[in-house]
Amino acid sequence: MRKNKFQLLVTLLVCIVITTACGLEKIKTKKTNDIDFTVVAESEIPSEIQQMIEERKEKEFKVTYSDNQYTYIIIGYGRQKYDGYSIKVREMYETENAIYVKTEFEGPKEYTNNETSTYPCIVIKIEYSDKNVIFSE
């Protein structure tokens, strides 16, 4: 009886390993080319993306959204106490099966005593892609 339970357990574990291993895809990190991108002006952000930002703006977030033409990469840095923050795209490139994006979040050049809640966010638009987006620090 013990031997049967042990065999059943081993068989079950082998099945789990086989089925989960089939879904894994190795992410390639070797750069194949740079990606052309546009930082979308606040007035030109599609309404679906504006809604996503509004729902998430209190905390840091990184999300993508695609329509038939473009993929949007949206990065928000949560509520900040002062105005004047900036976000720069430092690097954006493509690999065989992923898109890598690296941004830099910079504080205000000058701090004032006037506290005001701001929600720094950047929306980056690229040609449509079904590749995973990897956010690097």
Sheet with most strands: strand arrangement: 1-5-6-8
Cα shape: globular
Quantity of strands, as a count:
8
Structural class: alpha+beta
What's the order of the H and E elements? Answer: HEEHEEEEEE
Distance between the termini: 54 Å
**Contiguous runs where pLDDT drops below 50 for at least 5 residues:** none
**Can you give the helix content as a percent range?**
10-25%
Mean pLDDT: 83
Q: Treating each run of at least 4 consecutive H or I residues as one helix, how many helices?
A: 2
- The share of residues in extended strands comes to 35-45%
Task: Characterize the largest beta sheet: strand count, sense, and whether it forms a barrel.
Answer: 4 strands, mixed
* C-alpha-based Rg, rounded: 22 Å
Give a quick set of tags describing it.
four-stranded antiparallel β-sheet, 36% strand, alpha+beta, 2 helices, four-stranded mixed β-sheet, 137 residues, globular
Describe this structure in words.
The protein is of the alpha+beta class and 137 residues long. Helices cover 22% and strands 36% of the residues. The chain has a 4-stranded mixed sheet, with no helix packed on it. Strand 5 (86-94) and strand 6 (98-106) form a beta hairpin. The radius of gyration is 22 Å and the shape is globular. The mean pLDDT is 83.
